[in-house]
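#onboarding

Welcome to the new folks! Below is a worked example of what a typical request in this channel looks like: someone posts a single protein sequence, and someone else replies with the predicted structure as tokens. Don't worry about understanding the tokens yet, we'll cover that in week two.

Example request:
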Amino acid sequence: MDSIDRNILRELQADGRLTIQELAHRVGLTPSPCMRRVRQLEQDGVIQGYRAVIDPEAVGRSFEVLVSIEVKRDREAVEAFEAALQDIPDVVEAYRLFGSPGCLLRIAVADLAAYERLWIERLTTLSGITEVNSQIIMKRVKEPKGLPVGP
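Example response:
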């Protein structure tokens, strides 16, 4: 990956809806070689997809909670827990961690009552769970803007 590829990645992370013509102009290429590079980055799995960034408030999910969860430390419990998370749409991110806590979730729901229902009806009923701790997000200080892609 060279500096042009990195520039392509920077530009697409900032605006994934750029036309090939505009992207090519911004990175100093003509459209045809720019398109070849984008396709190659996609085929190589460097670019894994394109998404719209949605305002949580606009879709009724502005109440966000970080939840740390301890799961029994055996393979079957961890695999069952991780599989169950796939069926909970309110869990928008999930990470298995080294150490304690064993798992960190980011949950987006409408309000405190919705989170309480989720906590009682889903989270605490998952098999293998030994502890659930919630931290309500007061303010998002830095929005995700993509990954640094080097010089």
